[in-house]
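Shift notes (night). Ran Peptidase S49 domain-containing protein while the centrifuge was going.
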Amino acid sequence: MSLKGAVCKIWATVKFFVSIVFNVYAVLGVVLYLSATAIYDKYTETQYPLKSSTPKDAVVLLNLTSGEINETSVYGTPASRWANLFVNSRSNRFSFSEQVYALKQAATDEKVKGVAVTIAARQWNGAQAYEISEALLEVRNAGKPVYVFIQGSATNYDLLIASAATKRYVSPGTFVRPVRPIYGAVFNKGFYDKFKIDFVGQRVSLYKDLILDDVKYQVDQDVKSTYDSFYQIYLDTIKTVAANYDKQVTDFDLSDEALLKLFKEYKGNFAQAFTDQGWFDGVVTKADFDSLVAEEVQGNARNKKLPNYFSLASYASAIENPLFDLNASRNKDHIAYVALVGDVVSRGTAPDVISINNTLRYLRAIYYNANNVKALVLRIDSPGGSASTGVTIRQAIDDIRAKGIPVVVSQGYLAASAGYMLSSGSDYIYASPTTITGSIGVVITGYNVNRFIEQFDIHADAQGYGKQFATGFRIPYFVAGWANPYGDQVKNLWKAGITNSYHHFISQVYEGRKSHFDSLEAVHRVSQGHIWGGTDAKTLGLVDGFGSVPEAVNKARELIVLYQNEREEDKFSRGTLNEVKVEDIDKLPVVYYNAGRRYSITGDTLTTRVLNTFDVVTGGYFSSVVNLVNNLIAPEDQVFGTYQARVDDSLISPNQGQ
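Came back to this:
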C-alpha cells in the first residue's frame, strides 16, 4: 500500500470515529434536551381542575384503596413539584374537604343514582372516617343506595364508614375485628440509671407524654390518663357505628374472649363470622360486588357485570357549586380559607408543614385585604411543634380578628398543643368526636452524659459566661446528649424558660376562650398537656360543636351577619368595605388562599411517559436523582412531630426540645 493510500485509510478511520463520537453526542444532546424540556414542562405545569360532566345514572365511586387522603390540595411549592414529577393522580388536585363536600352533593343530585365505596388498607384517620361517614349518611338519608365493599382488613374506622351504607359486603379472607385501644411506651429510665445517664429534660405539663419513657419506670397515672382519652374516642366511634346499624353497642364492643370464641368457631374466617352476626350483607368477590352495583344501584341493563363508575375526583369537578370558587377574585367580597396542616416548624415550604415562610404570608395577605375578606375559615390538622412559631402565627390570626373579621376553625384529626393554640384564636371551633385536641403544655428534652464518661476518666469542664451550655463531649448515636458539669444549673434555666412558655400558652387559650373559661386557673385545670377526644373537649369548652369545613363555612356566614355592622373600613387595606345583604350571604364565594397552582398531571401524557422511560432505562437512578434534588430543596419540609409543643429558643437550649 502506498503512503498516500495509508494516509487516506487512516484519515477515513479517524473520520469514521469522529462521526460516531459526534453522532453519540448528538443523540445525547437530543436526549438531554428532551429530558430538560420534559422536566421543565412537568415542573411548571398548571393543571386547574377540568370541568367534568356528570353522566346520567352515575354511580359515584369513592375508592379508598391506597395512599393517604390529602388534607390539602397544595401543589405549588418547588418541593412538591419535584415530588409530583411521576404522579398521575387526578384526585391530588382536590383536598379532602372538597371531596367530602362533593360527596354530600350527591344526595340531592338527580343525575346520581347512588354511591359505591371500596375500602382496602387506606391510610385515613379518625376524623376523616367520621366526615366520610357523615357524608354517606346524607346520601343514605336522601333515599339513595350506598354500597360498601371491604377487602383485606377492617377495624374501627372502616366499620364507621361501612355503618353509613345501605348494603355492606366483604371479600373472602378479610380480617375483620373491632380494636380496643392500647396505649403504652417502652420505658428507658432504668437503662439510663444503669449507665449513669442523667435526663435533664423538663416539663411543666403533667401529662405531656413525650418524655414519659425517660422519667418513668412503668405505666402509671400519666399514661393511664392518655389511655382514657383514647378509650373515650373508641367508645364514641363504636356508639356511632351501633347507631348507624340500629343495633346495640354491645354487638360491636366485643371482648377478647368473645373474639377468640368467634375465631375458634369459624376457624379464623372473620368475614363469614361477622356476616352471620349481621355486620355485612354477604361475602363476595370484587367482581360480584361490581355486578351487584350495576344491577341494583345503576340498573344497567346492557352490562350487568360492570357499572359505569364516576370517580369522586371527577364528580368534585363536575358539581355546579363546589366548596371553593377557583374563579373568584380576591379583590371582591369573599370568605377566605386557609389549610393549616402538618407540624408547626420554624421554617419549611412544603404544603404539609405550618411555618412562618409557608403559612404566615397567606394570613398577612388576608390581613392586608381585610376590606374584601368577610370571614376566615381555618382547617387545622396539626400535632403541634414549635412554640415560638405557633405564637407568631397565632398573633397573625389575632390581628385578623382585630379588624372585625370572624374566624371559624374546623379541626381535623389532630389539633393538639400548638395546633390548639392556633385554634383557640377563633370565634368558633368545630371538631369531630374522633378529633384529638388539647395537649396544652410545654416540654423540653435533653440528656447529660457527664457521669457516664467519668467512668472512663473522661472529664468535661468549661469556663465563660455560657459555661452552663458547654457541650464538650457528645455521643450523637448512642443518646442525644452531652457532657456538662453544670447539669443542675441547666435544668433550672430550662425550667424557668418553659414555665414562662406554658404561662403564655394558657394565657393565649384563655384570651381566645373567655366565654368558656372564667379564669386562667380554669384553663390550667384542663391543660397540663392532657389530650382530649372531641366529645370530652366539647364538654370542657375546648371546642364548640361537631362539624367539618362545610359547617365551618356556614357558621362563618352567620357570623358575617352578626359582625359586619361593627366593622369599620380599613384605610390600609385594598378595596372598600361593603355591607353584604342578608340575601346575598350564601352567594359569597370561598377562596382557597393556599391552594397554590394545583400541580398534578391528569393522565399518562407524553411528558410522563418520557420521564418514566428514562427512569426504567436508568434502573430507577433518574427518580433517585430527582428525589435527591427534592431533599436538597427542602430537607426539613416533610418532618412531622408528635403531640408536643417545642421550645426552640436557642438561649434556653442548644438542643431543640419538644
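The longest strand covers residues 373-382. The two ends are 85 Å apart (CA to CA).
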